[in-house]
């Protein structure tokens, strides 16, 4: 279990909780770093003291465990920094059925992905190379992938 910890010990007093002190205006980098720090701190807070058996257990109907969530977040963070922002072609850290070339999906799922992908590509969307379900249109990644000189839209200020 969680070594006898009670729910109250998992919640941080609002006056002591600095996770959401990140800047929301100003330079983009400090804002992104602050948001990333808050996300990492929250995950560490929720997983602190968890024994291996609980870290690997999922709660139905989900099949995702906390360990799986940590792996997912590591892969997402890596993809955003190395692939989306730096343009590097990086494979996923962990094998997953979400990868477009996943070997562990059914023939029907593969056929459905092919049909959906063809329709989305025909409409001008681009696929993130590590997630079959993640498509983009008009943003910075789309501009990078299509060779467009600029994005069609950006984040609202």
From TrEMBL:
Transport is among the record's keywords: no
Top-level taxon of the source organism: Bacteria
Parts forming coiled coils: none
The protein, known as: DUF664 domain-containing protein
Gene3D superfamilies according to UniProt: dinb family like domain
UniProt KW Zinc keyword: yes
Keywords attached to this entry: Cell wall biogenesis/degradation, Hydrolase, Metal-binding, Metalloprotease, Protease, Zinc
């Amino acid at each position: 279990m969680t070594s006898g910890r009670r729910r109250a010990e998992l919640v941080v007093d609002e006056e002591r909780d600095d996770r959401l002190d990140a800047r929301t205006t100003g330079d983009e980098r400090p804002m992104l770093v602050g948001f990333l720090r808050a996300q990492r701190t929250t995950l560490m807070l929720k997983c602190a003291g968890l024994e291996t058996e609980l870290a690997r257990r999922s709660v139905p109907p989900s099949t995702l465990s906390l360990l799986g969530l940590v792996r997912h977040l590591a892969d997402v963070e890596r993809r955003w920094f190395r692939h989306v922002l730096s343009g590097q072609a990086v494979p996923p850290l962990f094998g997953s059925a979400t990868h477009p070339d996943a070997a562990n999906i059914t023939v029907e799922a593969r056929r459905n992905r092919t049909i959906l992908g063809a329709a989305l590509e025909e409409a001008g969307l681009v696929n993130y190379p590590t997630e079959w379900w993640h498509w983009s249109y008009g943003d910075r990644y789309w501009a990078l992938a299509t060779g467009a000189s600029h994005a069609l839209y950006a984040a609202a200020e």
